[in-house]
Amino acid sequence: MPLSGFTDYHVHTPLCRHAQGWPLEMAQKALALGLDELGFADHNPMPSLFDDWRMLREELPQYLASIEDVRARLPQLPIRLGLEMDYLDGCQSWWEELRSAASWDFWIGSVHYLGDGFEVDNPKYLSRYRDQDPEEIWTAYWARYEECIRSGWFDFMAHPDLPKKFGFVPKGDLRRFYEGSIQALVDTGLAYEVNTAGLRKDCRELYPARGFVALAKEAGVPVLINSDAHAVEELGAGFEATVEMLREVGYTELVRFEAGRRISVPLPASRRAEGAE
Ligand SMILES: [Zn+2]
Ligand SMILES: [Zn+2]
What we know:
With 277 residues, this protein is α/β, with parallel strands linked by helices. The protein has a single domain (7-266), classed as TIM Barrel (Alpha-Beta Barrel). It is 32% helix and 17% strand. It is built from eight helices and nine strands. It has helices at residues 23-33, 60-73, 92-99, 126-131, 134-150, 175-188, 210-218, 239-249; strands spanning 7-11, 37-43, 79-86, 106-110, 156-157, 191-195, 223-226, 253-258, 261-266. A seven-stranded parallel beta sheet has the order 1-2-3-4-5-6-7. A two-stranded antiparallel ribbon has the order 8-9. α5 (134-150) packs parallel to α6 (175-188) and α6 (175-188) packs parallel to α7. The termini are close together. The relative contact order is 0.15. The mean pLDDT is 96. The site of one zinc ion (ZN) has 4 residues, from loops.
């Protein structure tokens, strides 16, 4: 079982209109990989039509039913229910309504949008990266990210340094961007994910970079490893390289979630180091 000891909690479904693999296929793959648990975290619905990459409000029951169906068919695999929540202004009453719509195991706090509607990870906005100093984009993004952490709505944070996706990164030591958010994680007791999707993007690097992970470890911030899978073959991708990196910076535990409760488990051994692949 190549991925026993691991969970993958950041997994999308075709309801977001840019992913393949329905929950049942994902769950079958999770069993084949030997994952201990699988968690779904599709992009949260909004009260009315908002963009073209999330489920509609009317589709939420289908999302919930598709996961219930898999739980019933594959009782041997614990399946956690979550959402990847976009941190946007003026959503509090909607979030309250959403919160009571299901028994969520976790909500992931996520910043894709900056205040002016700019989506930091959408290729549609690539020209912004060419025209604007990455220093400015990163400054705005990290301020927003810290605000998202401090909002108190979320259980863990998604892909910390997402604006590096296309390879536009400010000059110099990037820790100046990380520090505020790491302090916010400490102050609020939140965890963050190492998201392996970055390995599949132009930046060819985990989200977040090792420099963030090392600072977070030093500050005692709990961590998860997630794939952000938008296709069955992406489930659990890059986990072996990630566990090695986490071990090198000194992490010995990962965290899991059940009904919003955080549980610590030992960091699995790196099978690569043991030569077992
Ligand atoms: Zn995301
Ligand atoms: Zn995602």
